[in-house]
Amino acid sequence: MSAYGLVVIGGGEAGISAALRAAQLGAKVCLINREPELGGGCVQTGTLPSKTLSNAAHFLENLKKGKRYGIPVVEGAKADYKTILESRHKTTMCEVGILATLIRKNAIETLIGTASFKGPRSVELRLLDGTVRALDSPKTVVATGSRPVALPGLPFDGKTVLSPDDLTALDAVPGRFLIVGAGVIGCEMAFIFRSLGSEVVVVEKAERALLGQDHDVAALITREFKKRGIRLLVQTGLERVETGADGRVRAFLSSGETVEADRVMVGIGRRPSTEELNLAAAGITPGPRGEIQVDERMETTVPGIYAAGDVLARFMLSSMAVVEARIAAENALGRAVKMDYTCAPWGIYTDPEVGSVGLTEEWARAGGDVVIGQCGYNDLVRSCLDGNVTGFFKLIFDGPTRRLVGAHVAGQDASEIIHFAALAVKMGARAEDLKDMVYNHPTVSEGFGKAAADALNKFGQRTPA
To answer: What's the pLDDT score for residue 63?
Structure first.
């Protein structure tokens, strides 16, 4: 049996983050990955590939604005999907190379195979050739990621019924595209494929798109759906599909309507990939979705076993997973660090983009007295110059203290500039602090100052605590 200071199960962004941090702290680390290539869903099928698609879609949309600057516009310009995928592949290979170099430089041993617990301090590894190895594992970080959830009775076939992970296997943009689920992934893909030329229909069982996001964000995205010709059917489910000899799909909806499509993508969420881990042998009881429960130190109920990333079924964001894994590794090696989600931002790569941090208005009002400050993108010189006037800044301040507790930006560069608001939430910044900042002019970030000034006007004569 081989002894390591830390065994990391999973070679995605979370697992690599844990392995690198542990190696930096002097531990002998073993990283176990199911696939020959590193990166997991983020690099191979999720975050990076989807951003390649998003970049192509945004570029096409921006081409339409060329006339305002006297630049000729090619009417009816279309993107070649195969070329987009080639670009995606180059980006993926570049990132895989970077990760492999980091692993090598930090002397992390990488093993390819399927891992499962034999006990709380031992892991069995089944290699690709069928060989079985037993590993001592005094400390373990589980970061095996997640997989897309299929509808009951409608398995993914990779041809007509697709998961979001299957989109990079398409050979062309579907003429008619049905998307099931108006969550983050569904909304992102709706904008992307509409810009690339698809006729898009989105069905959602809930009463609105982006359930769980701030209601003003969801309302803006819904309006943009309509402007772009994306049909959104809420409180509607997919009952069944029939595939014809020509490969086209007839989708039967709960409303009684039938929608014809070339492809159907089901984006109703993801489930932690923990079935093969034999968690019971380690003494861990997973939750109803297969998720692993951890405390604020990212430690499970079994001392010495930690978990991070999608296996927690919390935010399922690569950005969050990287930090969770780093904290897990540090605690596994004797440090005392806690995970803080209150100032963790997230981005939605729709068109316009969305960036959020902290509380939504609904959550904030349920908890007490709040004041909302707002600024429209049409009030920003930079947005007018760029022709991107759709969107808003929405800042949520605690009434008694005037401290920022939530921020939601929908519009140009939202996923980039939301980090400013995240830091403001972390530092307990007040409305006065944001208003009195000096902002470069003209910039989109000026919206934070204008929204803070709007909130101060609403505060009136209140005295901060």
So the answer is: 85
The whole-number pLDDT of residue 367 equals 87
pTM recorded for the entire structure: 0.93
Closest by Cα among 419, 423, 429, 366 to 397: 429
Inter-residue contact 339 to 296 (CB < 8 Å): yes
Residue 17's contacts (CB-CB under 8 Å, 6 or more residues apart) are: 308, 321, 322, 323, 325, 326, 329
The residue from 307, 332, 357 where one domain ends is 332
Kindly state whether residues 30 and 127 are assigned to the same domain: yes
Q: Identify whether residues 312 and 441 lie together within a single domain.
A: no
Which of 248, 268, 288 finishes a domain?
268
Answer yes or no: do 453 and 379 share one domain. yes
120-175 pLDDT, tens digit per residue, is 999 999 998 889 999 998 999 999 999 999 999 999 999 899 999 998 778 899 99
Nearest alpha-carbon partner for 213 in 51, 406, 35? 406
CA gap 251, 169 in Å, rounded: 22
Length, in residues, of the chain: 465
Active site residue 441: yes
Query: What's the number of CA atoms in the CB half-sphere (13 Å) around residue 392?
Result: 18
Q: Is 152 part of any domain?
A: no
Q: Which domain holds residue 292?
A: 2-147+271-332
Q: What are the strands, taking DSSP E only, across 72-198?
A: 109-119, 122-127, 132-136, 140-142, 146-148, 161-162, 176-180
- Check residue 409 and give its pLDDT: 98
pLDDT > 80? residue 464: no
340: in domain: no
Catalytic residue among 58, 89, 408, 441: 441
Q: Which two tokens stand for residue 448?
A: 């934070």
Confidence of residue 422 (pLDDT cuts 50, 70, 90): very high
Q: Give pLDDT, residue 227.
A: 97
Using only C-alpha atoms, the chain has a radius of gyration, in whole angstroms, of 24
Are residues 263 and 276 located together in one domain of the fold?
no
Evaluate whether residue 153 is within a structural domain.
no
Give the CATH number, domain containing residue 206: 3.50.50.60
- Pairing mode of beta strands 161-162, 263-266: parallel
Least confident of 237-246, 353-362, 385-394: 237-246
Neighbours of 359 (CB within 10 A): 22
Report the alpha-carbon distance of residue 283 to residue 196 in Å, rounded: 49
pLDDT higher than threshold 50 for residue 1: no
